[in-house]
């Protein structure tokens, strides 16, 4: 046990014990066995096996690279395995579902650089005794399940509040425990090994971005290819035309996927496909939201590249050591005449790149402020409606109180549907693709609310609270119902919940415009 505790901390051992017990018990339960029998063939189909091989090969290659430069060692094997199981694999699922352009990857990196990641790392660095952790783990899981159930029903609101206080208290205990250990043994945390453990997930994420990007690219290509029509010969030619058009650019193949009706669906020959792709290219060139910042980002990228090349040139020309020692900054200076000249050139490059980098940042900020002001003005009504709805969102929408529901949700939803429809049509070229996609998701959720309510958009303005109350009661009474669920109320509730989540997402995505 002591050897295990040298490799794994007490919390990891406790979680492993409970997970092992849960797996052993689950495999003897019939529904679980049926689920595994249906899922395992899918997980190990030909396409997934190929992807697993590519991913593992790339992971091993990147791990060896970190080992070669002196960063990775066998002591980090546990952290690497945990990262693959609990970060990378769920990220693959998220990538297939949400990765559509570079905005996804930018947000992914920002999330992993957030201060919350540092706090979580510090809190999880120290644990309680093994017996305490074995008790804490199932209790935490049980309370989490109860909390999830309590959060679904308004009648359990007081129970949810109790659990909120329990989680806050437990968080304080963890923080105090971490602070105590940090005070008693600061060098147990501030050392090279801890720094490597902290940086490892970020480095693995950055180094494995090509695989994640490739997965998103392959998934989008596959969704487009299955909709390509025509005979076998023309089908192959059209697919090659799509590949030539999109290449390795996720944004371009996503643009085809978002415009299937105007590209693949109406193309029966390769000539049709080329003509439609040409029209799509012209349309994308008019997409101000995607193109406006390109020049500033281009400047910044080349400043960074120039800066790195210049630094590398200085180091190479002033040392005679291996690449490993160069990366580890373990070298001595040597200044022959030829290298000295190159050093001066590279030094000038460093200064020039740095100065131009500062200018490029200012240039990008200025352009960003300009386009933000334009978008803020164009989307004023939409942003106002989103903010107004966000301010009256409730933890539990008043589904059983039609008058409150009408004032706080229904009227706003109908107005938002009209505004979303107008803005999607009017400002498609102004918005970035991810902004447009966010508004389209909002439109979809609003449409579900409107459909579940069942009142025509042209008629909703004539309704008062009293009239809506009568209408709601009549629809509820006429809807199919069993002992627990009324179909009409259930559909309205699910629609409102999805709509509320989308409002929160819009506030987060458009927060710089508010």
TrEMBL record:
The keyword Transmembrane helix applies. The chain crosses the membrane at residues 12-29, 134-150, 162-178, 198-218, 299-321, 341-362. Keywords: Membrane, Transmembrane, Transmembrane helix. This is Uncharacterized protein.
């Amino acid at each position: 046990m002591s050897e295990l505790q040298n490799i794994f901390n007490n919390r990891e051992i406790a979680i492993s014990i409970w997970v092992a017990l849960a797996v052993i018990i689950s495999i003897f339960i019939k529904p679980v066995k049926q689920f595994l029998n249906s899922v395992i063939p899918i997980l190990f189909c030909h396409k997934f096996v190929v992807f697993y091989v590519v991913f593992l090969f790339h992971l091993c290659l990147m791990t060896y690279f970190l080992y070669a430069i002196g960063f990775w060692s066998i002591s980090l094997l546990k952290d690497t395995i945990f990262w693959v199981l609990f970060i990378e694999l769920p990220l693959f699922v998220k990538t297939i579902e949400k990765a559509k352009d570079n905005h996804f990857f930018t947000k992914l990196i920002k999330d992993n650089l957030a201060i919350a990641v540092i706090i979580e790392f510090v809190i999880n660095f120290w644990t309680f005794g093994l017996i305490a952790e074995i008790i804490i783990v199932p209790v935490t899981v049980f309370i989490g399940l109860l909390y999830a159930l309590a959060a679904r029903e308004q009648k359990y609101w007081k129970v949810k509040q109790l659990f909120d206080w329990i989680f806050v208290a437990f968080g304080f205990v963890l923080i105090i425990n971490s602070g105590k250990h940090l005070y008693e043994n600061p060098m147990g945390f501030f050392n090279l090994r801890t720094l490597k453990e902290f940086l490892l997930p970020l480095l693995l994420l950055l180094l494995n971005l090509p695989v994640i990007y490739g997965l998103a690219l392959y998934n989008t290509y596959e969704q487009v290819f299955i909709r390509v029509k025509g005979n076998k010969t023309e089908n192959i030619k059209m697919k090659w035309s799509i590949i030539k058009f999109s290449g390795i650019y996720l944004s371009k193949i996503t643009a085809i996927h978002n415009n299937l009706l105007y590209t693949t669906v109406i193309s029966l020959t390769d000539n049709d496909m080329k003509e439609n792709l040409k029209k799509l290219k012209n349309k994308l060139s008019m997409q101000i939201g995607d193109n406006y910042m390109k020049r500033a980002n281009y400047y910044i990228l080349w400043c960074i590249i120039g800066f790195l090349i210049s630094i590398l040139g200085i180091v190479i020309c002033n040392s005679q050591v291996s690449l490993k020692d160069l990366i580890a900054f373990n070298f001595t200076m040597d200044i022959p005449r030829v290298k000295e000249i190159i050093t001066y050139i590279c030094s000038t490059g460093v200064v020039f790149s740095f100065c131009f980098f500062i200018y490029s940042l200012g240039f990008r900020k200025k352009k960003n402020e300009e386009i933000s002001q334009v978008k803020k003005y164009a989307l004023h009504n939409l942003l106002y409606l989103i903010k107004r709805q966000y301010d009256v969102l409730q933890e539990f929408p008043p589904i059983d109180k039609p008058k409150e529901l009408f004032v706080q949700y229904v009227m706003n939803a109908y107005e938002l549907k009209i505004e979303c429809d107008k803005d999607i049509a009017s400002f498609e070229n102004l918005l970035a693709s991810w902004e447009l996609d966010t508004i389209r998701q909002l439109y979809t959720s609003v449409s579900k609310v409107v459909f579940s309510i069942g009142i025509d958009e042209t008629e909703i303005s004539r309704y008062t609270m009293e009239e809506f109350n009568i209408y709601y009661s009549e629809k509820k009474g006429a809807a199919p119902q069993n002992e627990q669920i009324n179909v009409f109320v259930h559909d309205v509730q699910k629609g409102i919940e999805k709509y509320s989540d989308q409002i929160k997402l819009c506030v987060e995505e458009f927060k710089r415009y508010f």
